[in-house]
């Protein structure tokens, strides 16, 4: 009887060990991603990545500035492994604070040098151009012309009728701030932003929101990435029009990177490798994402072709990333 009892205990211990190993293996295989691109695209990416690799993956969607703040708080115990989408200059800010683990993917050869960091801090997966969106009905009812340059936004007729994203939470908004400062110089740029603040009726948490607010007629003018406007038109917001400022505009390189001291490093590298492929990048257009793609083999959506020849400034991502905290503080102090 005693021998039987000992055998039973050993058997149960063995089963427990096997179950523990299986659970540990399952936990090790589960990948968490912080995503700053549109939610539908993140859902599709996770679904397809799981199908192709068998790696269980979940994501949390936040604006770029919100993710930066989140990983600052999690620095000593990083919860996610990958940052997927969002403006590259915010990734540079994160790296400056010790929050990014450089990784040169073997697939990065498919991404032109101008769309990736030479040290593997971030790698670009899409490009988006800043521009203006207007409610066409509002313009006609008030007999107002579409703004065509940044200075036009300061005209009296736009007072209280402009909606912008908030630089504290939105990567799109910081791209606006950094564009103005690089275009006009810091002193004149901040002076312009101070004047523009008087015109703004609402600051939104996300860079996606101004287009929706304008499309609904709750504001006359917004500033956002123009690929978002294409999406809103296809979703039924027919009463909108868009333009890129003729005096020059900035742009984003949406990036992917691995977080410093992240769990599941091998799985994180597999996701970054996958995200740079032609197939992964082309998934976006199937769910209403119309950015220009960075993989030279990938076919970008046809819809943004009409904006490819806009007047782009020589946007300095490294400078923008390293000066992000300082410029946002100046912007916030200006508004107080």
From TrEMBL:
<dbReference type="GO" id="GO:0030976">
    <property type="term" value="F:thiamine pyrophosphate binding"/>
</dbReference>
<dbReference type="GO" id="GO:0019808">
    <property type="term" value="F:polyamine binding"/>
</dbReference>
<dbReference type="GO" id="GO:0015888">
    <property type="term" value="P:thiamine transport"/>
</dbReference>
<keyword id="KW-0732">Signal</keyword>
<protein>
    <submittedName>
        <fullName>Iron(III) transport system substrate-binding protein</fullName>
    </submittedName>
</protein>
<dbReference type="GO" id="GO:0015846">
    <property type="term" value="P:polyamine transport"/>
</dbReference>
<dbReference type="GO" id="GO:0030288">
    <property type="term" value="C:outer membrane-bounded periplasmic space"/>
</dbReference>
<dbReference type="InterPro" id="IPR001188">
    <property type="entry name" value="Sperm_putr-bd"/>
</dbReference>
<dbReference type="InterPro" id="IPR026045">
    <property type="entry name" value="Ferric-bd"/>
</dbReference>
<dbReference type="Pfam" id="PF13343">
    <property type="entry name" value="SBP_bac_6"/>
</dbReference>
<dbReference type="GO" id="GO:0030975">
    <property type="term" value="F:thiamine binding"/>
</dbReference>
């Amino acid at each position: 009887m005693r021998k039987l009892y000992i055998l039973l205990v050993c058997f149960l211990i063995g089963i427990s060990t096997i179950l523990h190993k299986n659970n540990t293996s399952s936990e090790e295989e589960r990948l968490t991603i912080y995503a700053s691109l549109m939610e539908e695209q993140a859902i599709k990416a996770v679904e397809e990545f799981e199908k192709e690799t068998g790696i269980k993956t979940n994501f949390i969607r936040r604006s770029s500035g919100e993710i930066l703040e989140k990983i600052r708080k999690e620095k000593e115990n990083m919860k996610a492994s990958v940052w997927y989408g969002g403006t590259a200059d915010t990734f540079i800010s994160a790296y400056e604070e010790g929050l990014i683990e450089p990784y040169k993917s073997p697939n990065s050869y498919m991404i032109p040098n101008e769309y990736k960091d030479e040290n593997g801090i971030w790698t670009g997966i899409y490009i988006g151009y800043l521009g203006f969106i207007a409610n066409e009905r509002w313009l006609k009812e008030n007999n107002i012309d579409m703004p065509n340059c940044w200075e036009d936004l300061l005209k009296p007729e736009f007072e209280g009728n402009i909606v912008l994203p908030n630089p504290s939470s939105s990567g799109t908004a910081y791209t606006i701030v950094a564009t103005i400062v690089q275009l006009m110089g810091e002193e004149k740029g901040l002076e312009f932003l101070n004047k523009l603040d008087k015109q703004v009726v609402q600051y939104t948490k996300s860079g996606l929101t101004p287009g929706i607010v304008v499309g609904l007629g709750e504001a006359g003018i917004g500033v956002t990435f123009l690929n978002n406007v294409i999406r809103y038109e296809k979703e039924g917001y027919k009463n909108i029009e868009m333009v890129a400022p003729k005096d020059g505009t900035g742009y984003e390189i949406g990036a992917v990177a691995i977080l410093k001291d992240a769990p599941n490093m091998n799985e994180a590298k597999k996701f970054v490798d996958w995200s740079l492929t032609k197939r992964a990048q082309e998934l976006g257009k199937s769910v209403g994402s119309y950015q220009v793609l960075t993989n030279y083999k990938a076919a970008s959506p046809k819809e943004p072709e009409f904006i490819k020849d806009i007047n782009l400034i020589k946007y300095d991502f490294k400078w923008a990333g390293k000066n992000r905290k300082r410029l946002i503080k100046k912007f916030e102090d200006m508004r107080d």
